[in-house]
Amino acid sequence: MVKGARWLKPLARTGYFARGMVYTIIGLFAVLAAIGSGENKDTKGALETLLGQPFGTVLIALLIIGLVSYAVWRLFQSVMDPDEHGTKPTGLAVRAGLLASAFTYTLLAFYALSLIAFSGSGGEGGGQSPAQYIAGFIGSRPVSLGLAAIFAGVAIAHWVKALKRKYADHLRVSEEVMAYVHPISIAGLMARGAVFAILSVMLVFRGLTADDASGTPGIKEAMEFIQGLPFGAILLAAMGAGVIMFAAYSFAEAIWREINIEDA
Q1: Residue pLDDT, tens place only, 32-63
Q2: For all residues of the chain together, what is the average pLDDT?
Q3: What is the 3-state secondary structure (H, E, C) of the chain?
Q4: Contact 68, 11 (CB under 8 A)
Q5: How many other C-beta atoms are found inside a 10 Å radius of the C-beta of residue 25?
Q6: Which of 10, 48, 126, 205 is spaced 20 to 30 Å from 63 by Cα?
Q7: Residue 134 — very low, low, confident or very high, per pLDDT cuts 50/70/90?
Q8: Residues in a beta bridge with 171
Q9: How many Å apart are CA 224 and CA 5, to the nearest integer?
Q10: In this predicted structure, what is the pLDDT of residue 132?
């Protein structure tokens, strides 16, 4: 066991819970947008929504702890390989994805921190806040095309994980509970995979046609794309429900996932 690493277990569970909170908000707003009572949100929009609630600063501060916890756990998974993905090409690809996840949630935590730090600064006029810099982080056309390939791989990984029920390998819970966890996990992973697949297609289009990356799409744009399709409201509501299922899957991981640091 990695010396002194027992603190990673509560850290990992806190991180999975924070991920679930973010995706709960995204899914709820997608469903509300489908029925005409709200607008779509992405991860940054979810944080901004939390900030606007009573005690919003406290909620964001707690969520920052969770996001940082999740980033640390993903980094540990990537480097120490506690889930034994190995060093074959597929294993290295998974570990690279975990490292990218650590980087992404670190950026999201910094974005949340900047929301608190600059919440009273007015927002308009003057220089850009760190939140605005982070929101415009994605750079050139090659980056967009590279991200498209990564997102396509992430989408496929989610679908394989759902269809082969690989998520169950890391959940330690009774068969009675798993009877409920299975449909929730499958629906959630399929939905999140679909979001990444749409983002991949949109990034290819933007990368080939856009002059710059100012319009780099995110979850919000993916949801708006779905909303614009025939029967878009129904599709968006279904996608929103699926994203909420992914949030529920994250909560299940927070409670029952095996946090294997002993063999790392």
Answers
A1: 888 877 778 878 788 888 878 877 788 888 89
A2: 82
A3: CCCCHHHHHHHHHHHHHHHHHHHHHHHHHHHHHHCCCCCCCCHHHHHHHHHCCCCHHHHHHHHHHHHHHHHHHHHHHHHHCCCCCCCCHHHHHHHHHHHHHHHHHHHHHHHHHHHHHCCCCCCCCCCCCHHHHHHCCCCCHHHHHHHHHHHHHHHHHHHHHHHCCHHHHHECCCHHHHHHHHHHHHHHHHHHHHHHHHHHHHHHHHHHHCCCCCCCCCHHHHHHHHHCCCCHHHHHHHHHHHHHHHHHHHHHHHHHECCCCCCC
A4: no
A5: 21
A6: 126
A7: very low
A8: 257
A9: 42
A10: 46
CA distance 237 to 229: 12
What are the tokens at 104? 């992404």
Average pLDDT over residues 25-35: 89
Q: What angle do CA 138, 109, 32 make, to 5 degrees?
A: 80
Q: What is the pLDDT of residues 182-225, one digit of tens each?
A: 999 999 999 999 999 998 888 887 766 655 545 567 788 888 88
Q: Which two tokens stand for residue 124?
A: 């308009």
More confident position, 135 or 148: 148
Answer yes or no: is pLDDT of 125 > 70: no
Contact 116, 56 (CB under 8 A): no
Query: How many CB atoms lie under 10 A from the CB of residue 9?
Result: 15
User: What pLDDT digit, counting tens, does each position of 85-103 carry?
Assistant: 888 887 888 888 888 889 8
